[in-house]
Amino acid sequence: GTSREVMLASLDNVMKEKERCAKDKTKSEGFDSLFGAQKAETPVAVPKWVEAAPMPDAERLELEKECLGFYVSGHPLGKYDCAVNAFSFRKPADLQKIKNKIPVKAAGMIKNIKVRQDIKKRDYAFATLEDASGRIEIAIWASAYASVRNLRLEDKMAVVEGKLQPQEKGSRFGSKIFVDQVWILEEELGKRARSVVLKSDREKLPDLRKILEGLETHPPNSPRKAFYVRINDGANGEGVYSLANPPKMTLEALGELEKVLGRNSIRIGDDLSPPSS
């Protein structure tokens, strides 16, 4: 069928045709009533479609939310799913079920930032961390907020590290994260991905090799990275291979790798030890 981009671009033509039909109908009805003739249907021309380029995902989703009140073709945070899954970050909805004081790393979009000052006149912030699964309250300590206050955190996909604590009874969002560190996922992904493990079946190796060869590698003087490929060789078991020149990890690279290898085939750690399988 006709794409929504073409229909939106052609809206002016559609409205002009509608106005023309309304005018012709009015003239026809006046003429028919004067001479007692039988009314004839006003012919409707097919509007001329206007060519239009595909709409960016973010713009399309924003229009869906604005017009319908919900998303239809996806979610604005969908492009981050592969990174969140690869790092094994916790999701807000999962954290609502936990009532213990435990250290956590969670990912989501930061919303509703409210900045306050402590008794030492240092800024700290309250906000919510949200994704498609739900939301959770966060409190960003002054020391953590000082390092990111100029990054415009509102509506950014971020990772928060801190301690999960049970919230007081009657709270709308349940538990709360007291944040010691916060960073923007897309901007910090390459630096934080110090150790990468890919799991692949042998028949997928040609496609995997093609992707890896097309990715940009880290310069020789950059901090050390570790990159492993675990190959499932059927009856022969599993072989582990290390890449001498690890490629840079970006959202686009992770998306391409996930398409070939499948979900849960990429694991990323922020230290040099191989992430657990």
Task: Note the main attributes of this structure.
alpha+beta, 5-stranded mixed beta barrel, 4-stranded mixed β-sheet, single chain, 277 residues, globular
User: What separation lies between the terminal Cα atoms?
Assistant: 44 Å
Helix residue percentage: 25-40%
Structural class: alpha+beta
Number of strands: 9
Compute the average pLDDT. 80
Low-confidence stretches: none
Largest sheet: 5 strands, mixed, barrel
Shape: globular
Q: Tell me the strand order in the biggest sheet.
A: 1-2-3-5-4
How much of the sequence lies in strands comes to 25-35%
Give the topology string: H per helix, E per strand: HHHHHEEEHEEHEHEEHE
Q: Could you tell me the radius of gyration in angstroms?
A: 27 Å
Oligomer: single chain
The number of helical segments is: 9
